[in-house]
Design goal:
heterodimer; A: 312 residues; mainly alpha; MetI-like fold; 12 helices; flat; B: 254 residues; alpha/beta; Rossmann fold; six-stranded mixed beta sheet; 10 helices; 36% helix; globular; binds adenosine-5'-triphosphate; binds magnesium ion
Chain lengths: 312, 254
């Protein structure tokens, strides 16, 4: 110890300060600990529902999906249900895929083109504000209301009747605001100088938008698309009044032969059934749906990470 | 064809953003196969000037201009003049490296493909020759399919130069091409500019007086939108005629 340090320690004022700092430090540590605990609790509360849902669904439905005796496992998904709902859920699986594919074919191009139009081809102004406002409102409309609208407009007014077309168009109403807004966000994050570099080479506006801007925005767009697909895949409410139900797969696009089953509708219908084996199938279907949505999320994650690493 | 002496001639050019006048009655021409440095303090209109020459300012709704810019004798603002052709002939390199989010090769082939080159062999040759001209070939030749954004900043900027050369423009505009780079990369690009003037007419904006003196044949000094001085670089370096130029090159303004 040097001479000066020793003298400093001896002065009374210095001593008090030291004690204060010591207290303060332990108080800070206490605060630190407190927040750490708070954060861990928050994290647990956030992730717990996911595992609880998984557990609840799997505890009844597990053997339906992963079992190997007859009617279980892959057979559960690939056989049609019989008249008293014995058998599998092929009708619902195929129906959901059909609904989601048609909804995507309509909804994705419309929303991406819409976003490109308002972001790249118009100046900020009234049109842009109106589109953004309406799509935000649409995104917040409860799905049952969308379903009611689908019934009133598509089924009734346009006379499409219930079925795969009306159902998937109703679903596409649900995905448009999400995809539109995420696409806009992705386009906005593309630096202006990238567009300028393309134009400065003599490219047209369209070529620039298509080859450079959309390409740079692709990871963001695909993430939005997959999130929207994952969401509509599990929606029951929009389908109740628009898609009907079916024990086989639809044979037509609209009209009486076009009624279609879906996984969420089937889960909803089966779970209210008094027969235990039907309820078990409901849980199996729920587990199947959960797995599908999870896979889509993982793909979204993977693509966006891979493409980001490759391109940005 | 019009008679023309210099690729680019500017006559009484004034520009505005909204009500704000940015360039004031600028007249000048750029000698072919030389480097012209445009100097001036921040905000004096250097970028605006450059971006008027390839009509990139047309993108900005509030932009207006008066006066004439001639490319090969033709008024580039005359109705019916093809802006795509103009930009094919006047390449541009930006301040920050901005490679496209594609592979190194695709960055180079993008421009030629736009203008109708589709032959694979021809494209391969172009990739090689452009990257060689930009002194990048040796560093990337083994992996032309790597994503361009993975290159270092200096490599990216040389790639951007190669990309600009890919459509074979006689004129090259460079807007502070090294100001975002480290000194070593900056030095490489300076050397490159000097080499390129054999085949190209280069107009380069720079903040840096020493750099302007090192690489340019002519120098222009812009001050608050006015073209204060435009002459041989050696002459300006020795004895600027205008006191504002002198103040700038001795570091008193800017
Ligand atoms: N898009 C625009 N809209 C409105 N004003 C603009 C726009 N771009 C530039 N200006 C204005 O024009 C003037 C000249 O800008 P310019 O970018 O040409 O300057 P500069 O000489 O390149 O400066 P720096 O050295 O900082 O790049 C500035 O006052 C700027 O505010
Ligand atoms: Mg500038």
């Amino acid at each position: 110890m040097t001479h000066t340090e020793r003298t400093e320690q001896r002065t009374p004022v210095n001593g008090t300060i030291r004690i204060l700092i010591g207290r303060y430090q332990s108080f800070r540590e206490l605060k630190d600990l407190f927040f750490k605990i708070l954060l861990s609790v928050a994290i647990i509360v956030i992730v717990a529902p996911f595992f609880l849902v998984l557990f609840e669904v799997a505890s009844i439905g597990f053997w339906q999906v992963f079992g190997s005796s007859s009617g279980q496992g892959i057979e559960f998904f690939l056989t049609f249900p019989g008249p008293s709902l014995e058998g599998g859920i092929r009708n619902a699986l195929v129906g959901t895929v059909e609904l989601v594919v048609i909804a995507s074919c309509v909804g994705i191009p419309l929303s991406v083109l819409g976003a490109v139009y308002i972001n790249e081809y118009t100046e900020p102004g009234l049109t842009k504000s109106i589109v953004e406002f309406t799509s935000d409102v649409l995104a917040g409309v409860p799905s049952i209301v969308i379903g009611a609208f689908g019934f009133a407009f598509l089924v009734d007014f346009l006379k499409l009747g219930m079925g795969v077309l009306a159902g998937s168009l109703t679903l596409s109403f649900m995905m448009i605001p999400t995809v539109l807004r995420t696409t806009q966000e992705a386009l906005r994050s593309v630096p202006q100088s990238l567009r300028e570099a393309s134009l400065a080479l003599g490219a047209t506006k369209w070529s620039t938008t298509w080859n450079v801007t959309l390409r740079a925005a692709f990871p963001g767009i695909i993430t939005g698309v997959l999130l929207a697909v994952g969401r509509i895949m599990g929606e029951t409410a929009p389908l109740i009044f628009t898609a009907g139900n079916n024990l086989i797969v639809p044979t037509e696009l609209s009209g009486s032969g076009s009624w279609v089953a879906s996984l969420p509708y089937t889960i909803w219908a089966y779970i209210t059934d008094p027969r235990a084996y039907v309820q078990e199938k409901a849980h199996g279907a729920a587990l199947g749906l959960l797995i599908m949505v999870l896979i889509i999320d993982l793909i979204a994650n993977y693509i966006s990470r891979r493409v980001t690493r490759r391109l940005v | 064809m019009n008679e023309w002496e210099h690729h680019i001639e500017v006559q009484e050019l004034s520009t505005w953003f909204g009500k704000k006048q940015v360039l004031k009655r600028i007249s000048c021409y750029f000698k072919d196969n030389t480097v012209t440095a445009i100097m001036g303090p921040s905000g004096c209109g250097k970028s605006t000037f450059l971006r008027t020459l390839n009509r990139l300012n047309d993108l900005i709704p509030s932009f207006r201009r008066k006066g004439i810019v001639r490319f090969r004798g033709e008024d580039i603002f005359s109705p019916g003049y093809s802006v795509y052709n103009l930009r094919k002939n006047i390449g541009m390199v930006f301040q920050r490296p901005n490679p496209f989010p594609m592979s190194v090769r695709d960055n180079i082939t993008y421009g030629p493909k736009l203008h109708g080159v589709n032959d694979e062999d021809e494209l391969d040759d172009l990739v090689e020759s452009c990257l060689k001209k930009a002194a990048l070939w040796d560093e990337v030749k083994d992996d032309l399919d790597q994503p361009a954004p993975n290159l270092s900043g200096g490599q990216q900027q040389r790639l951007c130069i190669a990309r600009a050369l890919s459509v074979d423009p006689p004129v090259l505009l460079m807007d502070e091409p090294v100001s975002a780079l480290d000194p070593i990369s900056a030095g490489k690009i300076e050397e490159l500019v000097v080499q390129l003037k054999k085949d190209y007419t280069i107009i380069m904006v720079t903040h840096n007086v020493q750099q302007a003196f090192r690489v340019s044949d002519q120098a222009a000094f812009l001050y608050l939108g006015e073209l204060v001085e435009f002459d041989k670089t050696s002459r300006i370096a020795e004895a600027p005629t205008d006191e504002r130029t002198e103040a700038f090159i001795t570091g008193r303004i800017g």
